[in-house]
From TrEMBL:
One of its GO terms (molecular function) is hydrolase activity, acting on ester bonds. This is ACY2 Aspartoacylase. CDD domains: M14_ASPA. PANTHER family: ASPARTOACYLASE. GO terms for cellular component: cytosol. Signal peptide: none annotated.
Amino acid sequence: VGKPPVRRVAIFGGTHGNELSGVFLVKHWQENGAEIQRTGVEVKPFLTNPRAVKKCTRYIDCDLNRVFDPDNLGRTVVEDIPYEVRRAQEINHIFGPKGSDDAYDLIFDLHNTTSNMGGTLILENSRDDFTIHMFHYIKNALAPERCPVLLIEHPSLKYATTRSVAKHPVGKYEK
């Protein structure tokens, strides 16, 4: 079955404000995006949690990477709503809405980790043929360097991550 081509890609950095690799890359690409632009594809670098980045802390009120669920995305905006919930709604408005045909095709969410896992790709859905083929391409392009893929799929879990807004969510972790 033919699928529409990937036309809109976002690269997220700063989901956790103290994970600086993605922050530095996103800021670099916001200033000079020529190296990530491709004909026929819109690529948008985006700083997801600017307040946490400014404070160099994981988050302000709650973990942004856990609030992209229907309850939080549909929550009424009131004065005391947690900053990250309000930010999730803004991100969903820009790159989604989550689960819709209008959502961005692909979101790369760049993270750091303190565990000794090196550069690792995170896969949330083993039935996403596009993402599996993309991971295969990335792994071959990086060879002989190691690039493990961590499958975090769970049959009854609906992911509430920043990247889950896209049709094809990808997490990338670096040590």
